[in-house]
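Subject: sequence -> structure tokens, single chain

Hey, anyone have a minute? Need the predicted structure for the following. Not urgent.
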Amino acid sequence: MRVGCPREIKNHEYRVGLTPGSVREYVAHGHEVLVETGAGSGIGADDNAYRSAGAKVAKTAQEVFTKSDMIVKVKEPQPSEWVQLRDNQILYTYLHLAPDPEQTKGLLASGVTAVAYETVTDERGGLPLLAPMSEVAGRLSIQAGATALQKANGGRGVLLGGVPGVLPGKVAVIGGGVVGLHAAKMAAGLGAEVTIIDRSIPRLRQLDDIFNGRVRTRYSTVEALEEECFAADVIVGAVLIPGAAAPKLVTREMLSGMKKGAVMVDVAIDQGGCFETSHATTHADPTYEVDGVIHYCVANMPGAVPVTSAHALNNATLHYGLQLADRGINAIMDDHHLRNGLNVHKGKITNRAVAEALGYEMSEPKAALAA
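Reply:
Had a minute. Here:
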């Protein structure tokens, strides 16, 4: 199979779908790899590094899309990219379709077979291709929140860790999954007072054991959310329903009870955001203010640290990517974890959460593939 890797064109996206190390693995499996010139520049990998790994270097993205049987990316295809996708081609990348009807229409019209990193599962019921970026985003959320909290950036002017004689800042983390865990680790490490809010009692017990009392846990109710958000200097939205749009847990009305200059970091923004007042921002212009509260809603947070992120992502995606390259559609047919990752196939939506979010009829993956 010919595997193509175009350069990412989303605003301030420096990651790359295939590192030179991953290219070597595809080549070792007998595949031809075509990489757009400059694709790895954001992680310090020049064209010669890809040539040394066995790839051919294409002059344009159009060449990559035209000549490749499978496209490996990081972020969802942009309008200029989805029109280049075609029938009998596999797209392997993050998609986040639930809040993105236009991209969904574009993928359906193309006839492409689209496998989304964020809905591929593993034997433990986890999301192994989403996890590494959730780890990065969770840790970055505290860095971003702490920076936005500085007075010159519009924030309250609070140092999260405090100093001797001055109380530390308060951080509320909504959601105790991978993002929430890593956000809490970073915040607690800085010395902040941290509370994790979640609706799973077993997960709250697990988090309590992990932090050994250094972080508070609360069961998620409207009252608990209000109390913690009103008291917090930084609020991290870390809610995930796989494939579906994120629930709006913090309402516009709640902002009036928050501290002026408090910061809300919406890590769920890829899935539409879990704050009612959220809208996607970019690294070029990451924050905005609503009712005196600073919002940080960058939709590709890990893109800020592409060296770490690209290698972590490739570590996770390589195994399934090789299966797709080796066996094509048959790999999806035979592996239910990959089938869970199938979102679009030949003009049909094959993921239930996406179909329900956007009002499409859902086609069972096996039936769609067999047809």
